[in-house]
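Sample pair:
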Amino acid sequence: MAPMTRRTFTRWVGAAGTLSVLGTLGFPATARAAKGRVVVIGGGFGGATCAKYLRRLNPGLEVTLVERDTRFLTCPFSNAVLGGFRSLDSLTQHYDQLRKKHGVKIVHDTATAIDATSRTVTLLKGTTLRYDRLVVSPGVDLKWNALPGYDEAASQIMPHAWKAGPQTTLLRQQLAAMPDGGVVIIVAPADPFRCPPGPYERASLMAHYLKTHKPKSKILILDAKERFSKQALFMNAWQEVYPQMIEWRAGTAGGKVLRVDPQTMTVETDLGAEHGAVINVIPPQSAGQIALQAGLANDKGWCPVDQTTFESTIHKGIHVIGDACIAGKMPKSGFAANNQAKICAAAIATLLAGGTPAEPLLINTCYSLISPDYGITIAGVYKPSSDGLVEVQGSGGVSPANAPADFRKREAEYAVGWYDSIMSDMFA
């Protein structure tokens, strides 16, 4: 077999994404002739993908994508901005091709209300959109004040940077201004939250920047959890690449943060106060605000859905995908949202044609960078069960713990290939 280049990897991932909808679901030809109006709220990994694939699966559908922003900044690879080897411009995507190439109607506005009875969506500018099926993909909102002392104003001093954009720039500027020898504190939340490996990739790529420019500095991760995603791979890599630079504390070892004080730049734990030159607080999260307002979420702030179609179990005719939904063991990631979107699109097209959606298999792959040339991965295949989505026994896995440098370098290259591929899949 010929070696896998980034180009062949990119083609493989794109093809696999399409086959997961058209192949494994046995998508019926009759569904391509159905008529109907579908409104999609949210233009991220879930919403943009779903809108595109609805039109690909059935060009006769009227698909309207409601998205406030005229551009999309990806959270994946935003940690590379903090590491100093990627720009925010390189993470910026636009919606033009969804309209021009795929016939998706793009409305740049904010959904303020959903009426599940009349099947309407009200927008901030006063427009009302009618739908036969609605897809809600609002991502997450941050729960201000869930951590005492951390409100929206505090994020201007202790940035969260958990939504790419100005907060990413602010955190990057703080790192650049920090004196050599300073301590960077990362406050990691309890599960569930968007991108479980994200705080630990962030620590890695911050360390990459500090090792190069401020080698006397340290990073302290204060974690509400007892364990985290890809933990063995991250900790082995830290010992190998950043010895003595990164310290992780579990919740029961002084990692649980009780409150923060932006004015004194301190965080209080069970073991006392910690002072940081730069403090990155990643607060608890919930489904995006429109999902909460529409009554699509449970008392914990997440949206229960049918695991085969992603239709809400609270309001029929409304599907919730991506970070906002409860997807069993499937993590909240960009790849997961993209894959859920395709499954949801196929289910909607089938339902509008009067058919019964087939039980799907879902895929998640997550790359994390330790440095620009050191990557690690985890992958899994998931299926519906009485306990929600569960991982198929024997599927997926993690990259080997003691891989040589050339393997880690290829993993980093594949991470870039994955990113290019999924951006093409969503927007091209």
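The chain has ten helices and 25 strands.
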